[in-house]
Design a protein that fits this description.
This protein has 326 residues and is mostly helical. The chain is 70% helix and 0% strand. It is globular, with a radius of gyration of 21 Å.
């Protein structure tokens, strides 16, 4: 899909929702594909090579946002950032799949929030908002990532940044308060506007959103009562095995083992590592929220495999191992 939609854009100079486009899923949002299209358009004829360059450049742009100067810390950060995608079990730098890119972008937004001091820097707010926007535009599942990140930021604000909220409503004229409120809630506004615009576009071209299909096909009562089709029961068993037992190459550890390891490692870091002007309780809470949200994401994928995907897709994807946990 991800290669063919860029080719379709190049051929018709239109989104994948164009009536003559023959892409597999025409309701997918065009963010990553559109970025790749702009790179491909510089060539006299379509070449897929440009899409791979664009995909890698997009990831590099996330990394470079944290680089102000070069010292040993920045060099270590760059090297680790380039190595992280390699351990995801796919050839990240030579694929157009956006699932891993979504996860890396979500991690980047999380770091934007803390690194750029969101509550004190308009630039930090802009970086988080643009990251949220790109998450939504890249794929439908990006909306879940965006909602999770906004939820984490909201909880962090309520528990540790209440003074900032009080300041917004205490200082200045009503117009200044409104401007401050709009600025600090820009990620939420971005999410609502982008989602609304894409839904409006789909209605205009008479294409059903994947969320409409999802709502009508997930049957929790059948899941609870066990009234499932044989392939759905097999999908559940394979999904459980992928999470608990099947190793994620090249790490040779399962998803559950990695989560437990990271939890223990982070608990040790929170206990013994002191970051300037950062409360250990805040770091611990951020970690717990990230782990909890990763479980929520896994739950959404689980329901999708059992109820949304076709029998062939569900079994193939779960048996492929790691798609469910990346």
């Amino acid at each position: 899909y991800w290669g063919s939609v860029v080719k379709s854009m190049y051929t018709f100079d239109a989104l994948g929702t164009y009536k003559e486009s023959n892409v597999l899923v025409n309701s997918y949002l065009p963010g990553a594909s559109l970025f790749q299209y702009f790179w491909s358009r510089t060539f006299p004829s379509f070449t897929e090579f440009a899409s791979y360059v664009a995909s890698n450049m997009f990831y590099f742009s996330i990394i470079l946002a944290f680089v102000k100067n070069f010292d040993y810390k920045r060099i270590l950060f760059l090297l680790s950032s380039l190595l992280i995608p390699i351990v995801m079990g796919i050839n990240f730098y030579s694929t157009l799949y956006v699932d891993c890119l979504l996860g890396l972008l979500a991690g980047g937004v999380f770091l934007f929030y803390h690194y750029f001091k969101y509550e004190k820097s308009p630039f930090g707010i802009l970086m988080v908002s643009s990251g949220i926007t790109m998450l939504i535009l890249t794929k439908d599942m990006g909306l879940l990532f965006a909602a999770i990140l906004i939820g984490i930021i909201f909880v962090d604000f309520i528990l540790f940044k209440r003074d900032i909220i009080k300041q917004v409503f205490a200082d200045g004229t009503k117009l200044q308060k409104l401007k401050s409120l709009l600025l600090i809630t820009l990620p939420i506004i971005s999410l609502l506007i982008v989602n609304a615009l894409w839904r409006y576009h789909l209605r205009t071209v008479d294409i059903s959103s994947i969320f409409t299909y999802t709502k009508s096909h997930i049957d929790l009562n059948a899941l609870i009562s066990g009234n499932l089709l044989p392939y759905q029961v097999e999908t559940i068993q394979l999904f459980k095995d992928a999470l608990v037992n099947k190793p994620l190459e090249p790490l040779s550890f399962s998803y559950l083992q990695i989560v437990i390891f990271l939890t223990l490692l982070a608990a040790i870091c929170v206990t013994y590592v002191r970051m300037k002007k950062t409360k250990p309780s805040r770091l611990l809470l951020s970690l717990c929220l990230v782990i909890f949200c990763s479980l929520v994401y896994s739950l959404v994928l689980f329901l999708s495999y059992v109820f949304i995907f076709s029998q062939y897709e569900a079994l193939i994807f779960v048996m492929a191992a790691g798609i469910a946990v990346r």
